[in-house]
Amino acid sequence: MLPTEDLFACVYVLIDDLTAAGIIAIPPRPGPAPACSDAELLAIAQVRHLLGRRSEAAFLAEVARDWAHLFPHLPHQSEANRRIRWLRGASGQLRCHLAAQVPADDCQQIDTSALPVRHTSRVRGPDGWTGPDGLHARFGRDAAHAEWFYGFRLAIKTDLGTRIVRARSIVPAAINERDIGSDLLETGPPPRDLLLDKGFTGKAFAAGQAARGTAVLIPPAKGQRHRMPPILRKIISSARASATPRPKRFASRSASGRCRNTSIHSRTTRGSSKCHCSSTSWRDLPEPGLRQRQHRARRGVRGLLWWCR
Fold this sequence. Notes:
Blueprint: H1 4-20, H2 38-51, H3 56-66, H4 77-86, H5 88-100, E1 107-118, E2 138-142, E3 147-159, E4 165-172, H6 177-185, E5 193-195, H7 203-211, E6 215-217, H8 230-243, E7 249-253, E8 259-266, E9 273-278, H9 290-300, H10 304-307
Parallel strand pairs: 1-5, 5-6
Antiparallel strand pairs: 1-3, 2-3, 3-4, 7-8, 8-9
């Protein structure tokens, strides 16, 4: 990673060169030219994303405190926020240009995610959540969380290795995922392999992609797992076992001074409770945050082919 000062300089020079070449189009505004140029604010916004800073106000204060010699005319936070939001089109052009410089992977993936805009219990009738081309907020089913939502759905196509977003679209909540998948695949060359979830299951969709030279890989359903090779079923079982949370271990010292770990399994069914003790070492204690990571892994598991990365 470059030093922060060098990173600011590189990003600013890149943006200024692309603006001069016409790749990034910044429309002119009426009035006098601001002291802090649009290229400077765009560079600050891009560096904030590269450094992973969540707060825009805190990052602007850091720039004014530590890098004032690079940006001597930094505007106030409210003005900077307004101008950065106005430059979102130029920011998108910059990202598309940089993504086009990276060759597309042979293996890509498509998935959709729910974009709720209002709780389902508060929907009473038509509202102002509308978009272009007759796009309206509607009810849809979120299979990942097994619940209904009111809003839209975000569909993206990304490379499996680099995770670069190649195409994206905001679609109605209740839509056939195979239709939006076909539209996303029209952008760019067809990949060799395409990873999908079970919502894209369909013989016609798979046959259409096979005609374009793309092999569709979808995790098998529960009724299809018995036809899988035994070695593949074993790998899937191992992956599920690794994502299953282990019982908590509590360290305590016995009368002899040795450290003992007690594993407690509590069952609320019929009010029964079981306790199992083991004499393992304190080094076997799970590291902090293990259950949280396993919980995120269980939510993201879409089958073995989805997690072979």
